[in-house]
């Protein structure tokens, strides 16, 4: 390619991306039009026009959120990453109980159906902690289970984690644009007949997964996200017939940040001070969503009976 | 008219609790791995059909978080969660797209970046074990059964 052609190509690219950044015009249409014009006027080759179109497609991809399928695969990788630090508690009875309870509660969430459903597993750790991945994998430690005194409080803990998934907090906490760029780049390369070059994108994907796992385990979500999850959990408890105040009571027994150490009390490290969460909840009187299209009479004794049966396994 | 219908559907999705009979059916795609169509807008209503990812459905009405749809291949109508549907077409996987000769740009725009192929590549490169993830995903129960359980109406 001659120097003049390169300059022209660069000028076209700058023009295109200036347009993209400055306006909300339909991306693919405008790029195709300008690139075709540049080719017809001999400013750039068809090859370079195609490259610009692909780059624009990637830029467009970076502006949108991941699909539910993509969220699912991100979630699987994040869950696998958490299992490297926290071993699972392989007890079928307890995990069945947690799943039936959690999957039933998820029906009352703002996103009752996700790509592959909500799934729950108990972690064999005395640390008070819980994690939720963007794909709906919810992990809760035996330490947090032991803190609960009845099924209402257990439901409160699960509803809080379900709300992080339903409200999309996981992916909103990482550099979403970077994730979508990786997704786009991988898709383009994996789609090539030759198999493409996917190693770089796989490595970048691993970096993003590590970043998200780090947020969940070490730094936690923003305080705003935690308060939103509490509020949403309160609404879910109300609609499912659990006591809304169970969430406040559980939070009051959580350790404060002052006692958090590097080796324990993970929940205290990654969540706002319990007192501030209780105060925020006190100001909220949840109302049932107009989406609540059914209601079932609740048997509180049955709930407590099965909770007591399971409690010995916590 | 289609555009108006899609815009209407979009606002109905955004606005919880909205209820509207659409002037003409709107085609939407299933955006979850599989979803159950029930005889009434309730998770405790009987399941009359199961639809899979990318399947297109004619949406007749939207009410309180549910979509009233025509059951594919029959004259029946049923209900499924509106969040299980997308107004975007989800036509192919990356592998299918490559086999069909679909352009790279279209693959990227279809949002097919993170998939099983990427997970396999990630597994090889990172030595991360997905065994426990597969194990926890085996705990799958019907939404209606779980709702009855939450109400304390059934035991383990």
Low-confidence stretches of chain B: 1-17
What share of residues are in beta strands of chain A? under 5%
Most extensive interface between two protein chains, with residue counts: A-B, 86 and 64 residues
Radius of gyration based on Cα positions of chain A: 24 Å
pLDDT averaged residue by residue of chain A? 78
How large is the count of helical segments of chain B?
6
Number of strands of chain A: 3
Computed CA radius of gyration of chain B, to the nearest angstrom = 19 Å
Question: What is the chain-wise order of helices and strands of chain B?
Answer: HEEEEEEEHHHHH
What is the quaternary state of this protein? heterodimer
Helical content class of chain B: 25-40%
Compressed to H and E, one letter per element, the order of chain A equals HHHHHEEEHHHHHHHHHH
- Helices and strands of chain B: which structural class? alpha+beta
User: How is the biggest beta sheet of chain A arranged?
Assistant: 3 strands, mixed
The strand line-up of the biggest sheet of chain A is 1-3-2
Overall shape of chain A: it is elongated
Straight-line distance between termini of chain B: 51 Å
Outline the biggest β-sheet of chain B. 5 strands, antiparallel
Percentage of residues in helical conformation of chain A:
55-70%
Mean residue pLDDT of chain B: 79
Number of helical runs of chain A?
15
Task: Describe the structure in brief.
Helices cover 62% and strands 4% of the residues of chain A. Chain A is built from 15 helices and three strands. Mean pLDDT of chain A is 78; it is low at 9-30 and 54-63.
Question: Can you characterise this structure?
Answer:
With 314 residues, chain A is mostly helical. Chain A has helices at residues 3-22, 27-40, 46-62, 68-82, 92-106, 142-147, 151-166, 169-172, 176-190, 199-219, 223-239, 245-252, 266-270, 274-282, 300-311, and strands at residues 119-123, 130-132, 137-141. Chain A has a three-stranded mixed β-sheet with strand order 1-3-2, sandwiched between helices. In chain A, a hairpin with a 4-residue loop joins strand 2 (130-132) and strand 3 (137-141). In chain A, helix 2 (27-40) runs antiparallel to helix 3 (46-62) and helix 9 (176-190) packs antiparallel against helix 10 (199-219). Residues 9-30 and 54-63 of chain A have low confidence and may be disordered. With 156 residues, chain B is of the alpha+beta class. Chain B has helices at residues 2-14, 94-100, 104-109, 116-126, 131-137, 143-150, and strands at residues 19-30, 34-38, 47-52, 56-63, 66-70, 77-81, 85-86. Chain B is flat, with a radius of gyration of 19 Å. Chains A and B meet through helix 3, helix 4, helix 5, strand 1 and helix 9 of A and helix 2, helix 3, helix 4, helix 5 and helix 6 of B.
């Amino acid at each position: 390619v001659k120097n003049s052609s390169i300059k022209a190509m660069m000028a076209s690219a700058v023009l295109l991306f200036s347009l993209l950044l400055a306006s909300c015009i339909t991306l693919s249409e405008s790029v195709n039009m300008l690139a075709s014009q540049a080719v017809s006027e001999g400013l750039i080759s068809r090859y370079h026009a195609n490259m610009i179109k692909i780059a624009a497609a990637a830029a467009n991809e970076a502006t949108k959120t991941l699909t539910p399928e993509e969220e699912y695969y991100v979630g699987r990788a994040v869950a696998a990453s958490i299992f490297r630090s926290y071993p699972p508690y392989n007890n079928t009875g307890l995990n069945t109980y947690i799943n039936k309870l959690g999957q039933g509660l998820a029906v009352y969430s703002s996103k009752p159906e996700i790509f592959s459903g909500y799934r729950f597993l108990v972690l064999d750790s005395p640390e008070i902690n819980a994690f939720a991945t963007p794909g709906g994998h919810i992990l809760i430690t035996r330490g947090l289970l032991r803190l609960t005194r009845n099924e209402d409080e257990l439901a409160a803990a699960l509803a809080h984690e379900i709300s992080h998934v339903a409200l999309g907090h996981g992916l909103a906490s990482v550099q979403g644009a970077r994730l979508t760029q990786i997704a786009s780049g991988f898709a383009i390369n994996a789609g090539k007949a030759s198999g493409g070059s996917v190693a770089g994108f796989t490595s970048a994907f691993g970096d993003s997964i590590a970043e998200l796992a780090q947020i969940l385990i070490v730094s936690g979500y923003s305080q705003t996200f935690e308060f939103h999850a509490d509020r949403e959990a309160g609404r879910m408890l109300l609609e499912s017939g659990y006591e809304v105040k169970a969430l406040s009571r559980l939070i009051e027994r959580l350790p404060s940040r002052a006692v958090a150490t590097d080796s324990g009390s993970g929940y205290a490290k990654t969540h706002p001070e319990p007192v501030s969460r209780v105060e925020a909840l006190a100001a909220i009187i949840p109302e049932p969503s107009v989406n609540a299209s059914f209601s079932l009479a609740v048997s509180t004794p049955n709930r407590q009976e099965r909770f007591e049966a399971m409690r010995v396994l916590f | 008219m289609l555009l108006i219908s899609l815009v209407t559907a979009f606002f109905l999705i955004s606005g919880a609790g909205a209820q509207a009979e659409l002037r003409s059916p709107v085609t939407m795609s299933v955006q979850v791995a599989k979803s159950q169509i029930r005889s009434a807008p309730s998770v405790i209503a009987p399941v009359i059909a199961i639809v899979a990812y990318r399947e297109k459905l004619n949406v007749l009405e939207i009410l309180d978080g549910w979509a009233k749809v025509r059951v594919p291949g029959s004259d029946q109508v049923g209900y499924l969660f509106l969040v299980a549907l997308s107004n975007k077409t989800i036509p192919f996987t990356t592998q299918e797209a490559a086999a069909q000769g679909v352009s790279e740009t279209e693959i990227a725009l279809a949002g097919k970046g993170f998939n099983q192929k990427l997970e396999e590549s990630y597994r090889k490169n990172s030595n991360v074990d997905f065994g426990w993830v597969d194990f926890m995903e085996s705990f799958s129960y019907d939404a209606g059964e779980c709702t009855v359980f939450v109400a304390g109406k059934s035991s383990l």
